[in-house]
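Backbone-to-sequence.
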């Protein structure tokens, strides 16, 4: 009985934060886990509010930043976002069910234009580049996913990698830039098992 009361009291701040975010247009189910210091800001672009939504059972760890900047951030069910991860949704970010985004990852969905020398870069509009991360994907610690990239279902990306190009389902990639090193056993691109005759 005491453990249940203690559990309810510990979850009260989380429930209040979820209600507060819902009032600001963020779509979170009641079973969402929000640790301390999570920021979720919809922002505006072209007079339209951004969208942030998460499916059932998602966990946002300490210090996660989700800024839609008038774009969108959408998470499927049971997605884990590790401590200090940053997701910018200018051009739209989608993360599939059961994915794991480890600590300090950065997921981007835009880039700056490159104007001629003498024209300030910051004064130019962003180029919107939708980013899609499939189901059951594992991004290791401090992975950066650049805008416009699609990471297929079941991929594993090693710690510190910078993903600049699409990864097919089941790929295991690491490095800067990320390079496919192999495929998960049973994935569509995996080599057939050897049969010794």
């Amino acid at each position: 009985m005491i453990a249940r009361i203690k559990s309810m009291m510990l979850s009260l701040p989380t429930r209040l934060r979820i209600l507060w975010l819902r009032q600001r247009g963020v779509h979170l189910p009641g079973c969402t886990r929000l640790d301390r210091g999570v920021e979720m800001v919809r922002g505006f672009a072209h007079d339209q509010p951004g969208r942030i939504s998460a499916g059932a059972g998602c966990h946002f760890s300490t210090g996660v930043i989700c800024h839609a900047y008038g774009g969108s951030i959408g998470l499927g069910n049971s997605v884990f976002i590790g401590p200090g991860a940053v997701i910018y949704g200018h051009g739209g970010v989608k993360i599939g069910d059961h994915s794991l985004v480890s600590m300090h990852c950065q997921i981007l969905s835009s880039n700056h234009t490159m104007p001629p020398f003498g024209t300030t870069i910051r004064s130019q509009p962003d180029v919107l580049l939708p980013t899609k991360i499939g189901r059951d994907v594992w991004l290791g610690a401090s992975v950066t996913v650049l805008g416009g990239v699609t990471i297929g279902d079941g991929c594993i990306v090693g710690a510190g990698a910078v993903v600049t190009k699409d990864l097919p389902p089941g790929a295991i990639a690491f490095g800067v830039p990320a390079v496919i090193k192999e495929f998960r056993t049973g994935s569509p691109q995996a080599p057939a098992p050897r049969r010794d005759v």
